[in-house]
């Protein structure tokens, strides 16, 4: 396949483009392109956006081999210009057909249908190492799969030791060993009884291990797949989905569960945990009698001379709050955060609001319209963070 380079305009070069006998612009000599050093070709490819890069495997067998290689993917992951992770939005109950991704560097959305997954694999759970973790439908609820939306590679994980429904699921990435772990706890077994065990999947061994028990009180409170989890400072924190809200933590080293002694602020609604620079934050609404009057950020801090407590660090400006809460009894505001970026959105598919802590002064702005908001079908949505990768091994 010949690769042609067309000059973009006379102002970009001192010489006019050469014309062939028919008057059309000449193409680059394939023999010259073919003599480019392999490392130079790799550097050129690495400069391309990932959504444009992966389809270039079709150009030649050598490019296919290069782009799919472990060394090339490692170089891509080490590039400083890659920017923050993408924000994936998908239907909470059918990510196969309804998934879009926001690229904060290009400030644009991409459609990412996951139709390469089997029809029964459609419930999104979480993301780790550029991979999405999904589970099967009701008849296949014990089945989990991992997939790469960029390469469209996927594989089913080994069966859990204890088959369970409505369990808590959290992930932990170990950058030291280039691996990840999946923590599953609680849930109910087929007979309807609570499953009071914790299992951990290790991507290095591709196997599950029962690491211990969960007391029944905790099991009851975390037995909903809507419970929110976040990993921070060696522990997996879970904000329970039922009122009164509570926070429970799983220590990966000791394999034990404990309740966080500091209670979250009272009268919480629309609450979520986020991790920022390995620090734990709580985001939620405050108001009397289950209404919401303000959205706050709190950080769990060790106050000098006192015990840890939730300290207010930010508040959503009123002009943005009004857009989400025309009705103060509304309760479908959602939040997802990673690093310095925090996104707010609703199931009703309104605009997505970005809170950017990377600036000297916190910046708030609306994103371009998400493709999911243009659908006539309204559905529950879930926001996940994914660092695009070319890894095909999953």
TrEMBL record:
Pfam families: FBA_1. Residues 130-356 form the F-box associated beta-propeller type domain. Residues 1-29 are annotated as: Disordered. InterPro entries: F-box-assoc_dom_typ1, F-box-assoc_interact_dom, F-box-like_dom_sf, Kelch-typ_b-propeller, SCF_F-box_component. Residues 12-24 have a biased composition (Acidic residues). It comes from the Eukaryota. PANTHER family: BNACNNG10540D PROTEIN (PTHR31672), F-BOX DOMAIN-CONTAINING PROTEIN (PTHR31672:SF2). This is F-box associated beta-propeller type 1 domain-containing protein. It comes from Physcomitrium patens (Spreading-leaved earth moss).
């Amino acid at each position: 396949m010949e690769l042609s380079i067309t000059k973009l305009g006379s102002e970009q070069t001192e010489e006019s483009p050469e014309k062939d006998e028919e008057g059309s612009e000449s193409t680059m000599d394939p023999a010259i392109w073919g003599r480019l050093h392999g490392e130079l070709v790799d550097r050129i490819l690495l400069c391309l956006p990932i959504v444009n890069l992966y389809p270039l495997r079709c150009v030649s067998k050598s490019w296919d081999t290069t782009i799919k290689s472990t060394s090339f993917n490692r170089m891509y992951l080490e590039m400083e210009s890659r920017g923050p992770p993408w924000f994936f939005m998908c239907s909470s109950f059918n990510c196969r057909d309804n998934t879009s991704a926001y690229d904060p560097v290009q400030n644009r959305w991409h459609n990412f249908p996951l139709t390469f997954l089997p029809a029964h694999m459609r419930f999104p759970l979480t993301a780790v190492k550029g991979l999405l973790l999904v589970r099967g439908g009701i008849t296949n609820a014990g089945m989990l799969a991992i997939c790469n939306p960029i390469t469209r590679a996927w594989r089913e994980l080994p069966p859990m030791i204890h088959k369970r429904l409505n369990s808590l699921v959290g992930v932990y990435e170990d950058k030291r060993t280039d691996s990840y772990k999946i923590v599953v706890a609680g849930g109910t077994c087929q007979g309807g009884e609570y499953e009071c065990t914790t299992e951990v999947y290790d991507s290095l061994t591709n196997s599950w291990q029962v690491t211990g028990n969960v007391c029944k009180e905790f099991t009851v409170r975390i037995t909903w797949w809507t419970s929110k989890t976040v990993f921070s400072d060696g522990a997996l924190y879970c904000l329970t989905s039922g009122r009164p809200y509570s926070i429970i933590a799983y220590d990966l080293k000791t394999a034990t569960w404990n309740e966080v002694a500091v209670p979250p602020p009272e009268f919480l609604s629309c609450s979520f945990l986020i991790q920022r620079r390995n620090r734990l934050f709580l985001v939620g609404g405050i108001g009397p009698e289950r209404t919401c009057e303000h959205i706050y950020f709190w950080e769990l801090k060790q106050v000098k001379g006192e015990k840890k407590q939730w300290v207010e660090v930010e508040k959503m400006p009123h002009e943005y709050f009004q857009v989400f809460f025309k009705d103060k009894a509304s309760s479908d505001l959602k939040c997802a955060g990673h690093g310095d970026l925090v996104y707010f959105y609703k199931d009703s598919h309104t605009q997505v609001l970005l809170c950017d802590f990377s600036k000297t002064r916190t910046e708030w702005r609306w994103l371009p319209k998400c493709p999911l908001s243009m659908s006539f079908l309204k559905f529950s949505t879930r926001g996940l963070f994914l660092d695009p990768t070319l890894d095909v091994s999953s």
